[in-house]
Amino acid sequence: MIGKHMLMIPGPTPVPERVLLAMAKHPIGHRSPEYSEIQAEVTENLKWLHQTEQDVHILAASGTGAMEAGIINFLSPGDRVLCGCNGKFGDRWAEVCEAYGLSVERITAEWGKPLDTEQFRAKLEADTDKTIKAVILTHSETSTGVLNDLETINKHVKAHGALIIVDAVTSLGAVNLPVDELGLDVVASGSQKGYMLPPGLGLVVVSPKAWTAYETAKLPRYYFDLGKYRKATAKNSSPFTPPVNLVLGLQAALQMMREEGLENIFARHQRLTQATRAAVKALGLATFAPDECASTAVTAVAPTTVEAEQIRSTMKKRFDIALAGGQDHLKGKIFRIGHLGFVGDRDILTGISALEATLIELGGDSAQSGAGVEAAAKALNRH
């Protein structure tokens, strides 16, 4: 049926009608007093969401652009950095660092496993000369559904004194991330995830410690020079032309998030995660990431008797539901169910029932009619 497409991928995520209507307004001048009022409200609500006193800067970019800006503004050519790599996006940040001539050391873990916090501790404690300038890692590794232990790694970084630069693209707005309380230096995110917006906005928050590093950092930058954004944001403006209607959508989305409340947002994502994982297991499928480090944004699933791409294809053709596939060497081996942003209990029950029907049709993974929906419903009812 035309117009009934359902996104169950970790980004882009579903967009509320209230946000779509806000974006459908006529554009206004980005140097007008009216826009400045909107920017002021958006900045305050972004600070609330990030749990920070620092301004959050809006870039016309994807999450990758936000992370690149978060890396290049605070480092100099040849600086030694540690990159946590246990998935597609951790690998990407190491590649960005190498592209800018940084000295990169990867701390790796098998895809589907969390980063080993002890490896960070050992590397940082051994660096008595303080040559490590930054530690860069992904909080929620979207490619595998793993939530890395940011809090523990951050403690080791704090004890050393390096900067910590965090990809929070699929964790911001899906899991509690108190930026100031943790003392995180740079946190980057993207609009098409927990913010419930289409792609197009990258967001970056910067600590006072990182701004001090900015003063002596020598990597080239212009459009992504966060110093320009710092000055403009303080005046409720933007250094370059912003995507005005996306900002109007962001205003509406943040209003919705404030109405729901931070604790309720985090509890909802946790509930949906537990329901999805319980349902997947009840259907005889294996979750790719362990329960103890499961992302609240996406669940990666490793089917054994039916090909992952067959499942995705049937879900799309029969039910017009989009699931994400595996990336790089996991292509064809896993599929991923997104459950962040504008997602509720009904969406999970709908998606799981369609997955059940798909497995029955494909004759795989010992699917028993009703088992997944029953497990999801029980998990949802426990909260």
From TrEMBL:
InterPro entries: Aminotrans_V_dom (IPR000192), Aminotrans_V_PyrdxlP_BS (IPR020578), PyrdxlP-dep_Trfase (IPR015424), PyrdxlP-dep_Trfase_major (IPR015421), PyrdxlP-dep_Trfase_small (IPR015422), SP_NH2Trfase/AEP_transaminase (IPR024169). It comes from the Bacteria. The keyword Transferase applies. One of its GO terms (molecular function) is alanine-glyoxylate transaminase activity. Keywords: Aminotransferase, Pyridoxal phosphate, Transferase. The modification N6-(pyridoxal phosphate)lysine is found at K193. Pfam families: Aminotran_5. Residues 11-327 form the Aminotransferase class V domain. GO terms for biological process: glycine biosynthetic process, by transamination of glyoxylate. Substrate binds at R336. Its cofactor is pyridoxal 5'-phosphate. Belongs to the class-V pyridoxal-phosphate-dependent aminotransferase family. PANTHER family: ALANINE--GLYOXYLATE AMINOTRANSFERASE, AMINOTRANSFERASE CLASS V. This is Alanine--glyoxylate aminotransferase family protein. The lineage of its organism: Bacteria, Bacillati, Cyanobacteriota, Cyanophyceae, Spirulinales.
